[in-house]
Amino acid sequence: RMAKSSKSSHLPLERGQLTADFIAGLTFAVVNVPQGLGNAVLATVNPVFGLYALIIATPVGALFTSSVFMNVSTTGALSVAAGDALVYFPGEQKTTALITLVLLIGLVQLAFGLLKLGTLIRFVAQSVMTGFITGIAINIILGAIPDLTGYTSPFHSEFLKLADTLLSWDQLDPLTTILGLGTIGLIVAFGYTPLRKFALILALVVITVISIGLTALLGTTSLELVGDIADIPRSLPTPMLPDFTLIPALIVPPIAISIIGLVQGAGVGQSYPNPDGKFPDVSRDFSGQGIANIATSVFQGIPCGGSMSGTAVTVNAGAKSRWANIFAGILVAIIMLMLVDVVKLVPMAALGGLLVVVGFQNIRPEQVAVVWQTGLVPRTAMLLTLLATLAMPLQFAILMGVAFSILLHVFQSSNRIRVVEF
């Protein structure tokens, strides 16, 4: 009887719950289609690969994680880190490198889970993660500026690109900049209405309609569309094999990116306990995320992990079980097949504006303030990690952050005074 109860609680089939889960999955699909496209842009690959990741990783993760509500999907941090790892691969080789990279990430995460390394998460200090996530958010905002303005700076440093863009203001494309800033304004405006859950998709729809109207009115425009930069087929993803000869060139990034995903996933698990009131098994969540990435790698998806924002969307929309995330993946596939021609018409300026908003949403002033007030050592760790994230390739920045966390743990342990009342 206990075994039967455990099995039924894994994927319950209660009509009332399934209706709520379907609505939650539909809400996630509508809200996160634009974010999936935007995160793939951050990863420097075909935007449709972000949708492939949602179609595969989200339902697969729902089946294998310990957390009932954890949404395994694309995140800005994982996408930026993947883009850093893939930046030097040219043309078609980038797709093969992506498949190999995501497969390695999945294998590392699965190994962490099978080895029961979930307890190691406590050694990653909150101050370090706050510095890292803040740095990622700033990188997302800076990386979106070329799409937002229509001007691509020749410099490599994001801050030099920003400075060059400001100094070259006369070379910005006016229409692209107006639509990009308009996207930001619409997202903010919709955020103050009852439709705030759909602010991202509504802003993209409005700006796309305006873009189509301007194109028809002016004949030709300088606007760059999603369809101009990527081939988006009207079909589901097809399997592709990794290139194992690329493993030596990708040996460090999978470890660092895995740590990012696992730390984010651990945060989700601790924020959203299971329906029985118990917190999920972190190690099993590691394994679930690993299996999800292994599955999505075969279908050209970008890296995925436990998403705090995705989980919040489904839970706030009424999710009752794992079916919410299973429905989410199915519904993304349906939306993609039905609206692929519309996706091609989305201006890159709109995605740039969306990413700027996503970047600002990932900056948590209250967390920064807490770390800042905690003490000199956590404050220093946060600032060092932030600077490393802005100045170094992200795979090295996260490893440096882990080193900071270990040193911080040792320092705090050696100075701890424990008062016990008998």
Summarize the structure.
With 422 residues, this protein is an all-alpha fold. 68% of the residues lie in helices and 1% in strands.
Please tell me about this protein's structure.
The chain is mainly α and 422 residues long. The protein has 19 helices and two strands. Strands 1-2 form a two-stranded antiparallel ribbon. Helix 17 (365-374) crosses helix 18. The N and C termini lie far apart (45 Å).
Distance, first to last CA:
45 Å
- Largest sheet geometry: 2 strands, antiparallel
Coarse shape: globular
Low-confidence stretches: 1-9
How much beta, percentage-wise?
under 5%
Give the strand tally: 2
Protein structure class:
mainly alpha
Main sheet: which strands, in order across? 1-2
Write the layout of secondary structure elements.
Blueprint (H helix, E strand, L loop, with lengths): L1 H9 L4 H28 L5 H17 L7 E2 L2 H11 L6 H22 L11 H18 L1 H5 L8 H10 L6 H17 L8 H20 L7 H4 L23 H19 L10 H17 L6 E2 L1 H9 L6 H22 L3 H14 L3 H10 L1 H16 L2 H21 L8
Antiparallel strand pairs: 1-2
Helix pairs in contact: 2-3, 2-4, 2-10, 2-14, 2-15, 2-16, 3-13, 3-15, 4-12, 5-12, 5-13, 6-16, 6-18, 6-19, 9-10, 9-16, 12-13, 12-19, 17-18, 18-19
List its salient traits.
422 residues; mainly alpha; two-stranded antiparallel sheet; 19 helices; 2 strands; 1% strand
